Amino acid sequence: MTKRRAVVKNSSKHILFLLASGQANTRTELAHLTGSPLSTISDTVQSLIRQGLVSDEGSVCFSGGRPRQVLAISHSDEFALVADIGRHHVRAGIARYGGSTELVRTSQFDTFKGPEPGLQALDSIFESVLSQASGSFRSIGIALPSPVNLDTGSPNQPATMPGWDGYPVRRHFEEHFGVPVTVDNDANLLAVGESSFRRLSHSNLIAVKVGTGIGAGVIVGGNLYHGAWNEAGDITHVRVVDSNPLRCSCGQMGCLETVASGYALVRTLSEAGIAVSQTMDVVDLARRDVPEVVSALRRAGAYLGQVLAVSVNFFNPEAVYIGGIFSTLKPFISAVQQEIRQRCHPLVMKGLAIERTQSGIDAEFIGAGVFALQQALRNDMQTFMRQ
Ligand SMILES: [Zn+2]
């Protein structure tokens, strides 16, 4: 392949991925996000339209401004099946190009029972969704609450998923449904989903998911950053206290998870005599302003803020987005914001947004759908390049 053709191929792929994720849908937005001149974008878009990969959807007025030609991925009836697997529930449904979702439902799911019962149940849920979906089924996207080996599509040393370590999740769905399957960590996909949902707002950010566990995803230049061994953003095992006698799921002492996660709060509050057995109990009591629970959430938020402050000073992102069920609790969010503001240098605080995610409960779902549909496009591109 000539160098020229490689350049064209890479820029085309980038544009396709931005349109597929919903981060952009006009030539001007594509120029903004890629940093390329508008004339170059127009040429590449024209080429993609000729190839049948992109369609021109006509002109639309944005906020009373000049009308702009809106672009979309062709074959907009195509969709991905998506599942966001949590420790106790799974959300499953379909995702379409541009970040939209349909037929999403929540079902019980117990990761502690091992992979096979759960994934077989998910097969049935997917079959049910497929029977109601319209359009062309292209791919599957799975979000897992664990580190993921991207080479194999398997959980990688998951802390609270007995029997799942190395289990071939990707192969399970490839063999059952015969389509490409993408598998990634849920906090990574939360970052992708939020980035897609907010479109042009920020391209360098940290997105944190706080619920029963804690995880973070890092977006650099608009793309998810996985790191050398796919562990970027895994802040949960940063040691934050030396005196905490509670052992973490990783075997170490004093990790962030032992003081700031839902799992940690359930443990410390129940030891203090408060009737909580799962993260949602903590959330319910916090919403009723039970003083001990509110105080515990403030302490948890402060610990998370300490770790994020180091990340912000180091990475200088434009935004820190907080997602997961704890992000709905004001005492928690306020403590995170306060700690970051107190500990960060003014130069990195300038313009830094520290906010709740806007994409809500479906952030990881949207992110998993974006990745799955981008994989389908990648296959289309490979087919085209071979022609
Ligand atoms: Zn740990």
UniProtKB/TrEMBL annotation:
SUPFAM superfamilies: Actin-like ATPase domain, Winged helix' DNA-binding domain. InterPro entries: ATPase_NBD, ROK, WH-like_DNA-bd_sf, WH_DNA-bd_sf. Belongs to the ROK (NagC/XylR) family. This is ROK family transcriptional regulator. It comes from Bifidobacterium fermentum.
